Amino acid sequence: MEGNLEQAADQPIFAAELTPYRSLGRKGYRILFAITGTVCFVHAIFFMATGAWPIGLFFGLDFLLLYGAFWLNYRSARAREEVTVSRTDLSIRKFTPAGRVTEHRFKTLWARFFVQRHEEFGITSMAVAGEGRQTEIGAFLNPDDRESFAKAFKGALATAKQRI
Hints:
Blueprint: H1 2-10, E1 14-18, H2 26-49, H3 53-76, E2 80-85, E3 89-95, E4 101-107, E5 112-118, E6 122-130, E7 133-136, H4 143-162
Antiparallel strand pairs: 1-2, 2-3, 3-4, 5-6, 6-7
Helix pairs in contact: 2-3
């Protein structure tokens, strides 16, 4: 029976996966680059045909720089965080865009959730601290997502502490 109590204490009360928001999906990305590529190609051909070949080369360079910026943006969108709260354990797993994982574990009873707010912008940062350690959480979230996550996470942490 004791094993069943330990298993029940380790069952997640709250679990969330935090990911950066990107407003342009795959289909929009393809459409944007099809249109941009066509416009750059047509203008490059026109300027090369009229003898202004350096301008034509700059159109190609502009397109490559735009593609590189979007590639870096979508690569950074692969970052994510997994947050799990149980009665005994709070776990924060951070995944970098390269796939490396860093895990931060806290005892639920000792964990504290800190939120910094700005009058105009709302929540500017969130952190979990306990046992002499601290880690920032949800740094890449937009203000609305920070508000909803903070409310849900604070409630889950309070619920977990009440059940101990």
